[in-house]
Every structure is written in structure tokens, then in C-alpha cells.
Amino acid sequence: MAIPRPPYTGRHVDRWGWSGKATWGNLFIHYYIEHAGELQQWNLSELTLGLKNLIVGRNSTGKSRTLNIIGGLARNLSTPNTIPLAANYVVQLTSEAGEDYIYELQVSGRTVSHERLLINGKVYLSRGEGGAGEIWAEKINGGVMMVFQAPPQEVALLKRRDSIQHSFIEPIFQWANQVRHYNFGSTLGKDNVILVVPNGPEVDERDQNQVTGLFRSGLKEFGKHFLDAIINDAAEVGYYLEDIKTGAPISIQFEGAPGELATILVKERDIATYVDQISMSQGMYRVIAILIHMNFLQFKKLQTCILIDDIGEGLDFERSCRIIDVLRRKSDASQVQLIMSTNDRFVMNEVPLKEWIVLQRKGSAVTARNYKNSKAEFDKFRFTGLKGASEMLFVERLVSEVAELKDIVITKKKIRGGGKSGKHPKVFKELDAERTITEEKFFILIYDCGGDHLVAQRIKEEHKNLTESGYEKIVGIRDVRPSYEREEIAELQQGMEDQVDKGLAPVVFILSAMEVEAWFLAEYSHFVKIHPDLTPELISESLGFNPRTFTASDRDHPARDLEQAYLLKGVVYDKTAVQDTVNVLDFAIVYEELVGTVPELKVLSDAVDHFLTQ
């Protein structure tokens, strides 16, 4: 099969195109084909990867297989004797300096029939069937193409690695050698117990199951800072640990071991004793294992690529979202490329759409769609927005306080399912016991739409029915984070407004910048009700912002701010504890003071006022 040469778009740096160094920015798989022309043929095309990526799609579209392809490519280019049975791919690595490395490989029956490397449009290595080829030799007569003979069953790029004559291979090897691949849904070595012996083998940093050995190496090399980083990250996910160490298993006993046995042991806050990895929950262990791996890579300062399949598998929704948030922030801080996969629709909603890669499969052909190559479709999806439990509870309290529970009926419902596929029928679930209607004058229906991309869509779907049922005004509330940045708020507002029928009951959209928790932060008197010593002054001293004086819309991560503030006094804030916070908010302050400083709250309070006083 002939392999087409990809279009060259890079820049020339010198006569042969390579500047001599590369720090990778993007990976682009033009196409990948397995078992070409056979019944089991499978191919992937147009996979563009940035710094942070979430691969999504329905079951069996190829999410895990895509990560396996990237991991397999890295092994082919860094580890001897790992050539695939059959593969055909064209891969482009673009450095942060704008240099394009294009690598082509075709294998059938574990025999290489074609291999080529281009850097900024120039051929540096080329070989065909039988293993004969040419490679650029830098130190011979100022640089020449020299012939070589490679074994047909080996990758020439790895076989010809030479930092003096062929130094252009080294950046590719370093990238491939530093790729790490983790399956979050696996045991990650939870059932493994290591045997500690003097002068034993070095830990394999690339093995996802060698968690205990890697933790010991990290402690030895980086000390307490390494331990503290893991404990702090675990707290952000929702696991509050006082200590992590290694030691003999507690929950099981081994007879006659020829040396010291070791597992991961953790001491949780408010728990009297340590728990070993064997008896701890699978979810907790997976989080700790991934954080050990991630922090080890960070402390080693590796410019690497992290592949995590089924991220969040086995965790509750809250912790799934938190581990993703921690990993994304680590990627930003260290410039480590992060590629995750999931098919959990609720978890997907916590990641900005610009980081999504949507796989679509037709037969054996899989195409990757992202914001770059399918902007119009992604924008249409983004503009359909959503809201959930936090807003529902807040609005219910606000309306109840303003109306003083007179002549008003508030009904709360969840909407789940729907969509074009019909696979999951739309379901409406009443959240409170049914109430008998007597002489009430006002009726308010509050919907939890079910995810962060559905507000405008749900309003559009129910608009006609609500209007015909006598509802006079519809208010849609959603967070801006994580799908949008601050500068995109106006675009989001307009996009949502364009979704509704102007001939039906009027619709008002309220965007809480950046999250509804900004409103909770602004009502600063509630902190001492959460804990008597949790004062605005303590928050200012510890976290760098004063709830008495700050501007709510200036905070980029209000939910995280609220969580960190509560943790100053050991109180946990998560989506299951929203009701506790809403219950202690002073709505007199919200209604009388905050509407003057928080524009979104003024829009909401004005809408409620107008409805109840007309």
C-alpha cells in the first residue's frame, strides 16, 4: 500500500530543516491502519492532540484502542523488540518551536516494509523492504546521506540511534521513552506486595503497577516535599490523609517471606490506625496510585505525555470531577501533555469542550473530531448550556425568602435522558413529595437539567409546553466554567439566546461568572456559621482574598475557593454538601446588598421581584 506524504506546513530552520532541539507541543496522527485489506482492518484518522485532551465517544468507538496506539507507538520508538504484528501510520510531532517531525511506518507480519522520517519537509531517514535505506549523518563531510542496512524485523529509527551522527533521533526517542500509559479502571497494582531486598532491581517507572516501589523511590529522592504534594492532591480529590508510608501488609499475613514485604499504608484524618492498600477501597487506591505516578514525574521534571484510560472509573461523580481537575492543573503547571478517556457523560461536562476529542466510528473507520476541525458543531453543542443542584437549591431559597412562603407553590424536577438516539428516553423525576394545591397564587417550577451543556437545550425542548401550561417567564441559570473562559461570556450569552423561540414565554439567561459558588463566597457572613473560627480575616490571611471586600466575578474558581476556605477548619464542601451552605446563607444580605455588587444576582432578583409583585 502506498503511503501518501502529508502536506508540509513547517518552517525551514537550516539547510536540512532541523534546529537541533525539540520540546513537543502537539501530536497529530494523520492516519493509522491495522491489518490493511484484511477482515480485521481498523483505521483512525485526523487525531490532533494538544496539551490537555479528553477522548470521548460511545462504547466501542475506539477510545482505549486510540490510547493503546499512542502507547504502542512510544514503545516502538523507545524499546527494542516491540514491533507490532501489522500497522501502517503517519504521525506528526510538532515542537513548541514550530518544527514538524513526520514519521511514517508500515509493518506487515512483524516485518517493516516502509519507514521514513521528515523534519521540516526534509527526509532524514528512509528505508524500504529488506531493510536497506539512507540516513542523514551529521559528522561525515559536513553532513551527508549515508546508506545502511537494518534488520527487516526492527525499527531503523531506534536501531540507528546515535547522539553524535544522528542526533535528530534523540528528541523523538526522549519523547517516546517518557510516555506513560495508565488504565485507571485496572487494579494499578493494588494486589501487589513487593519484596524489599538489598541491591534489588531498580523500579520500572513506566510500569503502572509498581506503585509501592515508585513511592519509595520518590521519598528517597525528593523527601517530605514529595509526600506532602501527594497528600495535598489527595485532599483536593476528597481523601483527607495525615500520612502515607510503606510497610508490611496489615490485613493479611505471609509466612516465610525471604525478606521485607511492603505495601502502601495510609492514615486517614479521624481514623485511629493505618490501612494497607489491599483493604482500602479501590477508588481511593486508584487516586493515590495515579497521584504517586504524576507527582514522581513532576518532581523528575520530565517533559512527557500521560495517557489515562477510563479516568474516574470506580469513583463517585464528585471525586471523578476532582481528580480530572487536579490532573488538568498539573498539566498546566508542568506542561506535561495529558490525554484521558471517558464515556461518562457527567464527567465529560466538567472538562472544557475545547479539550474534547470526539471519536466517531463508521464500520472499521474511526474519525476524531475536535474544536479545531469541527468548530461549528462544537460551538452549537457548547451554546446549549445547563444547570444543576447548586442553582436549584439557591433559587428555591431565594424565592422562598422573598415570597415568605405565602401564596406560592415551588415544584422541583430532574430531567434526564433524551437526545436524538432515543437510547435513553427523557425522564422527569419529582424531587419532593407531591403537594396539594389550595389557594396559591404563584407557581414556580425549578428544573435540574442534568449536566453542564443542557440549559438552553432543555428550555428549547420544553418551551412550548411550559408556555401552554401558563408559565409566564423562564429563567435559565448556568456556570461559565469549565467550558468557557471569562472573555467568552458575551458569546455564550448570545449563543444561548439564539436557541429560544421569541414568540413564546420570555426567557432570561443568567450566567454565574464563573460558578454559582461565587455568590456563596460573596455572602461572607455565612462562614462563621459553617465554623465559628472561620472568619473573613482568616480566609484573607490564608488564601489571599477577603470575602468582605473582593469582587465575586474576579474569582476564576469559586467552588475551589469555597472548598479551600472550609478546609481551613476541617469542613468539607462538595456537591453533596451544597444544601448545608445554602441553609446558612443570609438571604437578606443576598437580596439587599449583593444585588448591588453582583450583576447576575440583580438580574435574578429583579425577575423574581417582578413575578411576585405583578
TrEMBL record:
Protein name as catalogued: ATPase AAA-type core domain-containing protein
Source organism of the structure: Tanacetum cinerariifolium (Dalmatian daisy)
